[in-house]
Fold this sequence. Notes:
Hypothetical Protein Ychn, Chain: A; 5 helices; globular; five-stranded parallel β-sheet; about 150 residues; alpha/beta
Amino acid sequence: MNRRNILWSAVSALGAALGASRAKAAPEAGTGGKLKVVYHLSDAEKVHFVLGNIQNHIDGVGGPDHVTIALVIHGPALKAFHWAQANPDISKRVGDFSKDGVELAACGNTMKAQNVTLTDLLPGFVSAEKGGVVRLAELQSQGYLYLRP
Length: 149
């Protein structure tokens, strides 16, 4: 009976180790070692929280060279990124993210609704012409993991 428990424990440990190594290898196999993540932001009250999450993500993986991040913004949250209204913290973070290669996509439909163009937004933004939700789906189809904090 004791041998059976030892054997079962050994087989379980081996299975867990193989599963963990495959789980770790899976995201690295198709992306050259870089995980791809898209953050979805539409709630104005979550702007600082999401920007903090993105910075923590970049720091947590060892820098921007180890992750590909996109941020898709639509709805009320976009107003926080109008250059005329943006506070200095948001402006700095957006500038840093842009330098780090984070894709900053503004929903084209929201831009029309808010009557703004890319020149009215902080530098570094691109327009998601077909819409923010379409851009989210496109990125997910390209293997991006979806996060909506």
